[in-house]
Amino acid sequence: MSWDRALIVGLALAVVASALVAPALASHGPARGSAAAPRLDGALGAHGSDIGLSVHPDLPTAIPTGSVPDALLVDPANGTAYVASQLDGNVTVISLGTNQAIGTIPVGSEPYPQAIALDSTNWTVWVANSGSGNVSVISIAQGLVTASITVGASPDAIAVNPGNHDIYVANGGAGTVTIISPATALPHVIATVPVGPDPDALAVNTVPTTSSSRTRGTGTSASSPARPTP
Questions:
Q1: Could you give the domains of the chain?
Q2: DSSP result, 167-212
Q3: What is the pTM of this model?
């Protein structure tokens, strides 16, 4: 992904974060391991080689991350943000209470992390590595990668089914969606579904339990079946 696209993605994420993250943080009460949940009044946006974190719309604070941060998410219950940096192949963990990076988690050799998703119930962060064709599983509690699952070529998007916690990965280079079971002992692939050329986005519909992927440049989408919600 080019630098200008990274900037555009960051700005889009900033709009989403400003609308959704602050209310989520306010509604979750105290953060795990702290006296009170941090308040986020601004937004997160990826640009260059750092993250613009604004605790007030007029007071932006740049937080260094890896090179070309391309995807981010917020864990509102834990008061942290996770930023995937493409060129450095790592994920930076940021405390929203102090606005500082508190850890860096490598996700492999030349992985080119492209997308990231949170399973808050299972305390895991899932990273789609476009360069290495796999998904890294990060344990929030341990702060490290606990598993790596091979998927299709160039995984460009990833999403978590909040009902049964299956993971969906859109493989841009293979034209497929990989479905992963997040079994704690051994996460593993349970299905691979052809969807068309170059899928680059995902959304999960839990009623009925399906996921939809967008195929770039074709103006079409495809649905993938999901396991029934327990």
A1: 1-106 (no CATH), 114-230 (2.130.10.10)
A2: EEEEETTTTEEEEEE--SS--EEEEEEE--S-EEEEEEEETTEEEE
A3: 0.70
